[in-house]
From TrEMBL:
CDD domains, per the entry: CAP_ED
Phylogenetic lineage: Eukaryota, Sar, Alveolata, Dinophyceae, Suessiales
Sequence intervals crossing the membrane: none
InterPro entries (alphabetical): cNMP-bd_dom, cNMP-bd_dom_sf, RmlC-like_jellyroll
SUPFAM superfamilies, sorted: cAMP-binding domain-like
Protein name in the entry: Cyclic nucleotide-binding domain-containing protein
Organism from which the protein derives: Polarella glacialis (Dinoflagellate)
Domain named Cyclic nucleotide-binding: residues: 232-277
Annotated stretches, region: Disordered: 57-135
Length: 277
């Protein structure tokens, strides 16, 4: 035969021709779901490696880490320039006048202000936005997130109700889900479409199972008819056999009951084999 092995260039051209449209559609879908910060091809590569139990590539799926300038890249050890000596600033006069160190006296009966000129306000601990919102738990610690979630900047938050879990994609603080009328309507429509889709799938599976059972029963009845000489293919046509198989119904007689009597004419055909009618 005239078959020959393809070269690397022909193989690459065929792969681009076959998989090019699918890769473009996948890239558009990933960009629409996760934004431009995620590289679709690296995400596909890491997913394929994880599916086939291969070693993950060292590349990151975030574009921001790839597009860093030369100034932000780590320099090799020993390439740093020695620090240049800076001119020392003249020492400040640490002797503060007594009038500047003491707060101004306030007349009796007036409230003292919490912040005065020359005194710094007390530093309060930084509280995340999720802790100040009612019904929202703080994000999970980094130790409980997977490597892929940390790479994507994922933080999972959900309200107190376990049935309505919400997954937020962001790189900073958690943005709470605003419970507006439009969001509730969209969620109801989404749930209705999902319920209808699952109902259609369940109905299709039930029909497929019923068809499989019918085909199995028809095969069993066909094997049963093949053992009866008067109903074989040499006597009956294929169409007659199919019609006869579709009309067969199992019937159980009591012990000692007569199936038919002599000189009786009926409209039923009884096939008895090994005591099973």
């Amino acid at each position: 035969c005239g078959w020959r092995a393809m070269t690397d260039s022909e193989w690459s051209a065929n792969m681009r021709r076959v998989l090019g449209p699918h890769l473009a559609a996948m890239s558009n879908e990933v960009t629409r779901e996760w934004g431009d910060d995620v590289d679709p091809e690296i995400m596909l590569l890491r997913w394929l490696c994880s599916r086939h139990n291969l070693e993950q590539p060292p590349a990151s799926i975030r574009r921001s880490e790839k597009t860093k300038g030369p100034d932000t890249l780590p320099r090799p050890y020993g390439s740093e320039a020695p620090p240049t000596p800076k001119s020392r600033a003249p020492p400040r006069d640490t002797q503060t006048p007594q009038s500047a160190r003491l707060p101004a006296a306030t007349p009796p009966g007036t409230a003292r202000s919490g912040h005065t000129s020359g005194s710094s306000a007390p530093l309060l601990p930084k509280v995340p936005l999720s802790a100040r919102l009612p019904g929202v738990t703080p994000p999970l610690p980094e130790a409980q997130l997977t490597a892929q979630q940390l790479d994507l900047g994922l933080a999972a938050t959900w309200p107190q109700k376990p049935k309505s879990k919400l997954l937020c994609l962001q790189s900073g603080e958690v943005t709470p889900w605003s419970r507006t009328l439009n969001n509730v309507v969209e969620q109801i429509e989404h749930d209705a479409v999902r319920h209808q889709t699952r109902s259609d799938h369940l109905k299709a599976n039930n029909e497929r199972m019923a068809m499989e059972i019918a085909l199995m029963n028809q095969g069993v009845r066909g094997q049963f008819l093949a053992k009866v000489p008067l109903l074989s293919a040499q006597v009956l046509t294929e169409q007659t056999q199919l019609r006869l198989v579709s009309c067969l119904r199992p019937h159980t007689f009591e012990k000692g009951e007569s199936i038919f009597t002599e000189d009786e004419v009926g409209d039923k055909l009884y096939i008895v084999e090994r005591g099973i009618c």
